[in-house]
Design goal:
heterodimer, A: mainly beta, 11 strands, B: six-stranded mixed sheet
Amino acid sequence: DGGITQSPKYLFRKEGQNVTLSCEQNLNHDAMYWYRQDPGQGLRLIYYSQIVNDFQKGDIAEGYSVSREKKESFPLTVTSAQKNPTAFYLCASSIEQGLTAFFGQGTRLTVV
Amino acid sequence: QQQVKQSPQSLIVQKGGISIINCAYENTAFDYFPWYQQFPGKGPALLIAIRPDVSEKKEGRFTISFNKSAKQFSLHIMDSQPGDSATYFCAASPAGGTSYGKLTFGQGTILTVHP
């Protein structure tokens, strides 16, 4: 079945640590996105990539980094510079010139 | 302005009733307006979407109404069921250029349908 796989589902991070969230898609989509969701708020765009080896900052990129070495993969690193990383992180993808974004099941990150 | 404003924040409806969620936008470059449904602990799933060349789109019990001049759009859920209880997000994006697929989301509406 085609889809977007995010792992892990739950992640705990100690303060000062970097952690990497995985996102893999087998939909053959060109564009991939990372969103952050906080309680009572909509989804906010962190980074997006429209093509391999290229990516752009979204609205809240500070404290995050990404890479896009393969079309299928778009990992997100939450660095120690992110002051409030506890949130639900969602990865999405869409076809070139497509408008519909398909979402993964999310990773819940908690700082302990 | 990139903002999309959604209301109400929460909504309680009796089974069989009509649920109505409203959104307003400011950016006239937006021309794709999807609605997403999200259950707890899951990712959002596309429910229904509309382009501004039509004023209404219906899919089963779900209808989007679109008012281009007012820059407003709304989701109507007819014959609401307890299984519809979820968080609903409106969103908007430009259709083309380098911004395709970049969705701006509303704040979300928590819908509860009582049996």
